[in-house]
Amino acid sequence: MFGTIPRVLWEKVAPPDEENRIQLRINPLLIRLGGKNVLVETGMWDRGGEKFEQMYALERDETFFRGLRDVGVEPDDIDLVINTHLHFDHCGRNTGLTGEPTFPNARYVVQKQEWHDALHTHERSRASYIADTFMPIHEAGLFDLVDGETELLPGLSVLPLPGHNLGQQGVVLRSGGQTLVYVADLVPTTAHAPYPYVMGYDLYPVTCLEQRKKYLPQWFGEGAVICTPHDPKVAFATLHETKRGFELKAAED
Ligand SMILES: [Zn+2]
């Protein structure tokens, strides 16, 4: 998860287990805006079987659907699903156990580039794409492919953030003078905020670095609240300047 950064440095912020695994979480985000329910990310694929579950030591506590229900939102109530990209740990519950769309009344938004790349994988990208999680959405005609920065609702936009792969997008919400950014795997956890902390998983690590240098100062300047997709503890963070660029600390409220 930390690419070329030596373990002696990263183990302080992300202590590994005996298999060298670290604690990560899947952090989908519900946005309620203008009477619409928008879901960013749909969580980890849950049909991989025992070997898959053991390899990643998955702990499933079912907070995904319960979290929605706690605020009175049923799967049928979701109007918009934003897939930051189509890796199985981000769009895993686009579909349900029998392959049906989990959110049948939603449009699913993904970048055109990402859709192309999901259909044209190579040896380095193939393991991340599981057709079960996106082909049924395509077949049901629920995908809206967007090309570049696009405003989906007033104040709510998607923004290309290449590096992890080519077609990844983040989500930017500007409302009431405040900015919230869902950064996707550009910065997978708060521990990844320093510029060189780029993942070994990234297909284009230098592009990832360039995108960080482009956007982190901008979001810092806006005082944006940052949501990372995999932080094990922190859901909402803010940027703070350091010698190496920035760090992310839990937001105050
Ligand atoms: Zn991820």
From TrEMBL:
The keyword Lyase does not apply. Keywords: Hydrolase, Metal-binding, Zinc. SMART domains: Lactamase_B (SM00849). Pfam families: Lactamase_B. Residues 25-230 form the Metallo-beta-lactamase domain. Belongs to the metallo-beta-lactamase superfamily. This is Metallo-beta-lactamase domain-containing protein. Gene3D superfamilies: Ribonuclease Z/Hydroxyacylglutathione hydrolase-like (3.60.15.10). One of its GO terms (molecular function) is metal ion binding. The keyword Kinase does not apply. InterPro entries: MBL_superfamily_lactonases (IPR051013), Metallo-B-lactamas (IPR001279), RibonucZ/Hydroxyglut_hydro (IPR036866).
